[in-house]
């Protein structure tokens, strides 16, 4: 997308939408290449995915082409810190919940997730992590019967 | 027995202290799981099912029903407070509900939602009592062809939902349709668009997409803007709705109730379709459609009334025909069967106390929910004064547990994180995610019914115009399309869009 | 629930401390019961009902863990990756377990999984509207012969029980039917009641728990009439060779010690004989039919071969 931002003209958000639409359409077409298309009476599994992908690419072009001519409008600045920290915290939770139990997973999620916001105090973060973990264990694991081990063994 | 006698019988069954207690317990539990994002009523009921072995049949069923409609009440709470729909039917509530919360009117939004839901629940419950069997024949007249037309209409109506350009909304619907096709093709068993991942063979779960696109990306976007300090809501102006709020919402509640009661009868996406349709209808008939999405009270009242009405009326096919219309109702069917009751016409004649007791308890349950929820609003709104620094890790944790607990696997959580990134990209592209979710929910219904129709007619599409219900909906679709293409309509849309930009 | 849960967790903690010895099986640690379907489904409810009886029988804990997805493959994969110490068992369903072995690359080796005991055998059946002109399978076949492709049959997808039964009927009677896939038995029932399809496939258990005044069953596809529907003739009695039953039971890894598997099988057998369990099974319309793991396993190769033949028919354009 950065390539598109360089030009003096171009509506950034719309070009990004067009890119997403065309990207999804192309990806879908590529992935459904091996699927049987079928006939109208006996539609194969590939019939509608391909129709939808082609429509998606058409819509992408219809959004993107006029956007090229419009005066430049930048996409809002991207800040990587919250994006990466939250994503890593969540992915880490998933592995930890299965292999290390709920307690460690929850502590990890809250502590790591808090790093997304630079202003926090450690004392607050730690007590929040402990409180939420206790609450989660009581409500979800005991109360609602969520099937997850509590401890890593 | 006359209608009044039967109703009296029902209330005398439902009002016994034990049944009343189980009704309250179910409603409370339902509210709790509705409020907690990701934890759905289906899983909770499955876990509780064995416990109901030890209860008398009616008490067990009353409690499980309470969980179901209680969850519908609770689901709107997180939608309004933190912009996170707990269920598909609460997606539209986020559009105006969350905006109201940001303007300090969270209390009004929640109160209108609760009162609208109560009204809708009352009407739909009486619809079950008075016209259950008649309404169920309406549901039966919906064959594959009628579904196709209804879905086409519903998807087109979804473009009204978004306040941005129509084309982008259509693009989002198409992406939703594509996501809905991931998994094993129901008709042929072929696996589609799965990247060969076994975890995707059954498709993507709604919760994964909703939590990713609404939950995670909302948190990322909020933190990005100015860090946790910057996420401040306007101070609470007043806890209760104003006279003007009531004045604006009563008609919306009425229309939402009507739509919800009818669409709730249909199998599959009934409640979801109902809440989306109710919102779209309000926006169409409103004198100020451009304000939708900025925190208008009708935008909360109509879909909330509709989804609660649909939750009640989805009992009709189960109670009168013995056929569950969604997963939740299938679970209820199991609950009936565990107690040796086979739902269907025979229950109405042989065990009227079960049918009428349940109907009466539903109304009582709805009343209890209002009584529980109205005082709770004060508490919920206090939640908004919790600094975001403390709030977002909690939301993050609840979302993760909810996603993880669906299938107890790592994959779903990672997928949700992926949808968080995608949702973030959509935000940067100024694409609204609502239509995507509708396309995702309705897409599989559209595809399977289209294929079914053409299999049955052996490839002849004229069935769509030969069947009256289908024809009516196709005509409505064409009119809607014409309205959107007409320049005047497009201008108002664009004005609305620009106003929001400003 | 909470109390059981607490007990289970306490037990887990204690077990972790002492270390598991095979000699102590099964009292020192909970036995995880993997269910291949989502909570609330037929198999899930059956096993959740059975679990307390097994707990009394073996004096052990049986926590249920749902691993739904890919018609059981996810659960079977999890089972084949568990330690072979007898502390993990899973549900086993046919024909799904067999049909997934045909032309699909699996993430586990089916030869690693040994049945412990069959609990239920539920024959397939075809049903029509109560007012339908078809009174027996013969009526239907006669009509279908005269009007090829005109009879639409609701199934739950390609390669499912109902679809395989339909293909067998087509082959046995020399007729041509149109399969219409639905998302589940309930969707199919609704379409049948609304008159959108002529006939649908179900299991006898599902049929007996439906409202019988609105449906009529034409035949059941078992060797012998099921205890649930003693009045319904089998397809064979009507002259068509159609056999299709879904069976549900338990399985463990094959390298779990022989005596542990035998103990589990005996426990299932005893639980099934318990009148209290039988009463519950009757309420859920479970056609109980115990079969030892060995006998059940012995049946499988022949059935697999039959399914493979039918699948070839599907690929050959029917």
TrEMBL record, chain A:
Pfam families from the UniProt entry: TctB
Domain DUF1468: residue ranges: 17-149
Bilayer-crossing regions: 12-32, 47-68, 80-113, 125-145
Keyword set, alphabetical order: Membrane, Transmembrane, Transmembrane helix
Protein name, entry field: Tripartite tricarboxylate transporter TctB family protein
Origin species: Paracoccus litorisediminis
TrEMBL record, chain B:
Residue span(s) of domain DUF112: 20-438
Pfam families: TctA
Keywords recorded for this protein, A-Z: Membrane, Transmembrane, Transmembrane helix
Residue ranges of the TM segments: 20-39, 45-69, 108-131, 151-179, 200-221, 259-281, 328-348, 354-374, 386-404, 470-489
Keyword Repeat in annotation: no
PANTHER family tied to this protein: TRICARBOXYLIC TRANSPORT PROTEIN
Protein name: Tripartite tricarboxylate transporter permease
Automatic annotation (TrEMBL), chain C:
Domain of life according to the entry: Bacteria
CDD domains reported for this sequence: PBP2_Bug_TTT
Annotated InterPro entries: BUG, Bug_dom1
UniProt keyword annotations, A-Z: Signal
Family: Belongs to the UPF0065 (bug) family.
PANTHER family the UniProt entry points to: BLR1237 PROTEIN, TRICARBOXYLATE-BINDING PROTEIN
Descriptive protein name: Tripartite tricarboxylate transporter substrate binding protein
């Amino acid at each position: 997308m950065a390539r598109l931002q360089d030009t003096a003209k171009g509506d950034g958000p719309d070009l990004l939408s067009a890119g997403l639409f065309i990207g999804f359409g192309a990806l879908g077409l590529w992935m459904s290449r091996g699927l049987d298309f079928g006939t109208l009476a006996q539609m194969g599994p590939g019939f509608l995915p391909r129709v939808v992908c082609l429509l998606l690419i058409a819509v992408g072009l219809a959004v993107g082409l006029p956007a090229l001519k419009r005066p430049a409008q930048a996409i809002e600045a991207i800040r990587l810190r919250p994006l990466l920290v939250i994503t890593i915290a969540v992915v880490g939770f998933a592995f930890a919940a299965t292999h290390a139990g709920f307690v460690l997973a929850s502590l990890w999620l809250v502590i790591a997730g808090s790093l997304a916001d630079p202003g926090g105090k450690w004392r607050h973060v730690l007590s929040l992590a402990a409180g939420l973990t206790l609450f989660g264990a009581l409500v979800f694991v005991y109360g609602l019967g969520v099937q997850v081990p509590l401890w890593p063994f | 027995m006359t209608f009044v006698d039967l109703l009296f019988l029902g209330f005398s069954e439902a009002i016994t202290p034990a049944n009343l207690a189980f009704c309250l317990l179910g409603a409370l539990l339902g509210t709790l799981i509705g409020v907690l994002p990701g934890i759905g009523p289906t899983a909770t009921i499955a876990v509780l099912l064995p416990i109901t072995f030890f209860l008398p049949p009616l008490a067990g069923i009353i409690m499980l029903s309470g969980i179901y409609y209680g969850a519908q009440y609770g689901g709107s709470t997180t939608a309004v407070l933190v912009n996170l729909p707990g269920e598909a039917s609460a997606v539209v509530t986020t559009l105006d509900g969350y905006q109201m919360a940001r303007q300090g009117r969270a209390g009004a939004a929640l109160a209108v939602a609760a009162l609208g839901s109560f009204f809708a629940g009352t009407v739909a419950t009486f619809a079950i009592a008075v016209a259950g069997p008649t309404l169920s024949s309406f549901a039966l007249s919906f064959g594959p062809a009628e579904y196709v037309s209804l879905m086409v209409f519903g998807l087109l109506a979804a473009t009204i939902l978004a306040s941005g350009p129509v084309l982008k909304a259509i693009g989002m619907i198409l992406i939703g349709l594509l996501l809905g096709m991931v998994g094993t093709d129901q008709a042929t068993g072929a696996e589609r668009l799965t990247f060969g991942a076994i975890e995707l063979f059954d498709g993507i779960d709604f919760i994964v997409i909703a939590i990713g696109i609404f939950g995670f990306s909302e948190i990322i976007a909020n933190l990005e803007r100015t860090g946790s300090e910057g996420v401040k809501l306007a101070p609470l102006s007043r806890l209760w709705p104003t006279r003007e709020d009531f004045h604006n919402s009563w008609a919306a509640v009425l229309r939402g109730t009507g739509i919800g009661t009818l669409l709730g009868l249909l199998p599959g996406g009934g409640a979801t379709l109902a809440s989306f349709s109710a919102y779209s209808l309000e926006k169409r008939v409103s004198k100020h459609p451009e304000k939708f999405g900025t925190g208008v009270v009708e935008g909360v009242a109509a879909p909330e009334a509709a989804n609660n009405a649909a939750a009640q009326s989805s009992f009709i096919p189960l109670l009168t025909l013995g056929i569950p219309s969604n997963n939740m109702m299938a679970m209820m069917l199991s609950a009936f069967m565990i107690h040796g009751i086979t739902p269907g016409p025979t229950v109405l004649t042989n065990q009227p106390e079960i049918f009428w007791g349940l109907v009466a308890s539903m109304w009582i349950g709805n009343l209890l929910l209002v009584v529980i929820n109205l005082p709770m609003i004060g508490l919920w709104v206090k939640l908004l004064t919790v600094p975001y620094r403390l709030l977002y890790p909690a939301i993050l944790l609840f979302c993760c547990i909810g996603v993880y607990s669906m299938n107890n696997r790592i994959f779903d959580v990672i997928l949700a994180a992926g949808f968080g990134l995608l949702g973030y990209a959509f935000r940067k592209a100024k694409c609204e995610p609502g239509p995507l979710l509708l396309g995702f929910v309705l897409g599989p219904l559209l595809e399977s019914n289209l294929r079914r129709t053409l299999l049955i007619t052996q490839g002849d599409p004229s069935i769509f115009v030969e069947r009256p219900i289908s024809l009516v909906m196709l005509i409505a679709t064409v009119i809607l399309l014409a309205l959107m293409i007409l320049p005047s309509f497009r201008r108002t849309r664009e004005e609305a869009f620009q106003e929001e930009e400003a | 629930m909470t109390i059981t849960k607490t007990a289970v967790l306490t037990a887990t903690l204690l077990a972790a401390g002492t270390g598991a010895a095979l000699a102590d099986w099964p009292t020192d640690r909970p036995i995880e019961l993997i269910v291949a379907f989502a909570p609330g489904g037929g198999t899930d409810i059956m096993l959740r009902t059975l679990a307390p009886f097994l707990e009394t029988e073996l004096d052990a804990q049986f926590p249920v863990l749902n691993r739904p997805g890919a018609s059981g493959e996810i659960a079977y994969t999890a089972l084949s990756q568990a330690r072979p110490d007898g502390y993990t068992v899973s549900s086993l369903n046919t024909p799904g377990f067999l049909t997934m072995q045909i032309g699909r690359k699996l993430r586990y080796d089916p030869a690693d999984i040994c049945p412990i005991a069959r609990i239920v055998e539920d024959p397939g059946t075809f049903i029509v509207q109560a007012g339908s002109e078809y009174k027996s399978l013969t009526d239907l076949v006669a009509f279908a012969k005269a009007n090829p492709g005109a009879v639409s049959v609701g199934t739950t997808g390609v390669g499912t029980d109902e679809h395989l039964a339909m293909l067998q009927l087509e082959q046995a009677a020399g007729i041509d039917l149109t399969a219409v896939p639905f998302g589940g038995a309930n969707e199919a029932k609704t379409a049948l009641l609304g008159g959108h399809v002529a006939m649908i496939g179900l299991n006898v258990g599902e049929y007996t728990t439906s409202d019988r005044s609105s449906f009529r069953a034409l035949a059941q596809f078992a060797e012998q009439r099921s205890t649930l529907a003693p009045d319904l003739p089998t397809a064979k009695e009507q002259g068509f060779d159609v056999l299709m039953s879904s069976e549900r039971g338990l399985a463990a890894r094959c390298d779990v010690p022989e005596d542990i598997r035998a103990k589990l099988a005996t426990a299932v057998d005893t639980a099934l004989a318990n009148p209290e369990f039988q009463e519950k099974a009757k309420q859920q319309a479970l056609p109980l039919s115990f079969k030892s793991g060995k006998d059940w396993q012995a049946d499988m190769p022949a059935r697999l071969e039959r399914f493979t033949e039918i699948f070839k028919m599907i690929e050959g354009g029917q």
